[in-house]
Every structure is written in structure tokens, then in C-alpha cells.
Write a structure and sequence with these properties.
globular; alpha+beta; 133 residues
């Protein structure tokens, strides 16, 4: 069995654009819809700020990386070596679970064709659904 080099946390309901949204997108949607409690909002805001300060948003390097016309279905995966980033996802999973949003963890040695990469993550175009299993 190959070692998983990449990890992704995503919802189980397909987005209208065809991909399964990640935990950050799902939490951001709850916040934008005003569904978070005051404590949940504080958690979401402070942790989003922490992530913004500690790793690069791919769109700041490549503004079209998530553009559905250029890269339909592009999704981000953590590198397994980015454990300090992965560890903080549990709070997002708890927040989403509190709102009945189911998520799961995926691991893969090859999640797809890399269209962006930095020290902590890759953004990929999935070459096949089987690559995500």
C-alpha cells in the first residue's frame, strides 16, 4: 500500500460546479449565511485569520487557480508534512458537525494533476474519481 502524501477534508455533497467543497469553503458559507453562533463565529474568524497568516492562499499567487472556466473542479490538498495546519482542521469539523454538515478525510499519494504547489499544499485537477479514494 502506498503512503498517503496528501490529505483533504471535504463535504459529502457535490457542489453545483461538480466538486466536493472543502471544510474551509463549507465553514465560510455558514458564516456568510449568518448561521454561526457568536462563539462559532469567533472560532471561525480567528482560525481563518491564523490560516491566512500561516500559509499562502493559492489565489494570491495564481488568481485563476480556482476559476471554474480555467480549472473546473480544482481542489486543494494539504501535504501530509503540514501537520501543524492539519491539526487545526478538527475545530472546523466540529463546527460543521454542529450544523449537520458531514465531512470526511481523504488521503492519497496522487490526488490529481498539480496546478499549484507550495510548501504546505497542492491544488489539483482530479484526473479520475478513483484518485480521490
Amino acid at each position: 500500500m502506498e503512503q498517503a502524501l496528501f490529505i483533504r477534508f471535504q463535504g459529502v455533497v457535490r457542489h453545483p460546479r461538480g466538486h466536493f467543497p472543502g471544510v474551509f469553503m463549507l465553514a465560510n458559507e455558514l458564516a456568510a449565511q449568518g448561521k454561526l453562533t457568536e462563539d462559532q463565529y469567533r472560532f471561525w474568524r480567528s482560525n481563518n485569520d491564523w490560516y491566512d497568516a500561516n500559509y499562502t492562499n493559492p489565489t494570491s499567487v495564481d488568481p485563476v487557480v480556482y476559476d471554474p472556466l480555467v480549472h473546473p473542479g480544482a481542489v486543494a490538498w494539504f501535504k501530509a508534512s503540514a501537520q501543524h495546519l492539519i491539526d487545526r482542521v478538527d475545530g472546523y469539523l466540529a463546527l460543521l458537525a454542529a450544523h449537520g454538515v458531514e465531512c470526511h478525510r481523504l488521503e492519497s499519494p496522487n490526488p490529481g494533476r498539480v496546478i499549484y504547489e507550495d510548501k504546505y499544499q497542492v491544488v489539483v485537477m482530479a484526473e479520475a474519481e478513483s484518485a480521490l479514494a
